[in-house]
Amino acid sequence: TPTSGRAMVFGLPADSPSASVDIRRRTGFVGDDKGLYDAMTVRGMVRHTASFYPTWNREMEERYLRKFELPAERGIKELSRGMRTKLALLLAICRGADLLVLDEPTTALDPAATEEVLQGIVGHAAEHGTTVFFSSHQLGEVEQIADQVVIIDRGRTAVAGSLDDLKQGYRRIQLVFDGEAPAYTFQTKGVERVKRSGRVMTVLSSAGIDGVLGEARALNPVSTDSSPVTLKDIFLDTVAVED
After folding, report:
1. How confident is the model at residue 155 (pLDDT cuts 50, 70, 90)?
2. Of the candidates 42, 77, 48, 78, which has an alpha carbon nearest to the alpha carbon of residue 62?
3. CA-CA distance, 205 to 104, in Å (whole number)?
């Protein structure tokens, strides 16, 4: 039950008991706890899950069993972390989901398994038009596969937009002065954060560099420099506590 606000999925209210059934029918979920039954084999887990979904895709099931090299007759308790993640992803995909919700799906996976899982997600989304809601603290993975990004800081949206637009718009501008960097408040739109350290002032801008540099001329810096930022840089500079 929400404490405030509302959430809509497929245009349906997420906190409605009747709508929730339809939402869950159309949604596949993979989390850190994969929800697998250790007493079953891989094939048994697949058949058990398929029995709940009339839209289960048997052809896709066989394709992903081969693609992920899942041993159909092996017991689930014998599977590695990577194999368990790939099986959980198969179970989410083959039910015919319109939405995949993935919560830290690559936790504790080795780089090879992580890459295989990420490529499986991207390939499926591209082929079937499935929406993927991917929650992760692994910002390199987010940057690798995301189209749209939202950064949440203490329950509120701090940054939101297309990844391409964010990477194009965000810049770090460094201003160096003869003496101590001035305590100045920029009026230019898009200035997200300003740090001062000795003679250096560093400005994070979400609207390019022209406005900042134009306003900074009045401060008479001895040198200026700008550089693009990564999603990790945006995250750290956006959610960091003020000095």
Report:
1. confident
2. 42
3. 29
Q: Which two tokens stand for residue 129?
A: 């038009």
pTM more than 0.85 = no
Residues with Cβ within 8 Å of 18's Cβ and at least 6 positions away in sequence, in order, are none
Structure tokens at 218: 């009045």
- Provide the token pair at 79: 């599977």
3-state secondary structure of 218: helix
The pLDDT tens digits of the residues spanning 5-30 come to 889 999 999 999 999 999 988 999 99
Q: How far apart are CA 100 and CA 28, in angstroms?
A: 5
**Six token digits for residue 111:** 């780089």
Buried b (16+ CB within 10 A) or exposed e, 38-71: eebbbeebbeebbeeeeebbeebbeebbebbebe
On the 0-12 / 13-18 / 19+ scale of CB atoms within 10 A, 28 is buried
**Residue found by looking up tokens 């159309």 in the block:** 26
Chain-centroid distance, C-alpha 83: 22
Which of helix, strand or coil describes residue 50?
Answer: helix
